[in-house]
Amino acid sequence: MLVHLNRQPVDCPTASTLLELLDSLGLSDRTGIAVARNDLVVPRPRWSQTALQENDSITLIQATQGG
Fold it and tell me: Which domain of life does this protein belong to (predicted)?
C-alpha cells in the first residue's frame, strides 16, 4: 500500500494501522511527536486503531527545543 509521509511516497505493504507504519519506520517510540492522517490529528492512544488506506496523507511533526 502506498501512503504519503510528509509528502514523500512510502510503500508500506505490511502496515494496516498508523502504529504499524510508525513501528516499521522506527518512529513509534519517539516522544514529542504529533501525527495527522489526512489533516486530522490522531492522538497517540488511537494510533493502533487508526486504519490506513491507499494514498493516505500522513504528517509527522517533531517538537524541538529552542527560543
Answer: Bacteria
For the stretch 29-44, pLDDT in tens is: 999 999 999 999 999 9
Phi, then psi, of 19 in degrees rounded to 5: -60, -40
Please state the CATH superfamily assignment of the domain spanning residues 2-62 in this structure: Beta-grasp domain (3.10.20.30)
What's the pTM value of the predicted model, to 2 decimals? 0.88
Question: So what's the pLDDT on residue 67?
Answer: 64
- Number of neighbours of residue 16 by Cβ within 10 angstroms: 14
Residue with cell 495527522: 36
- CA contacts within 13 A on the Cβ side of 50: 20
Domain map (residue ranges) of the chain = 2-62
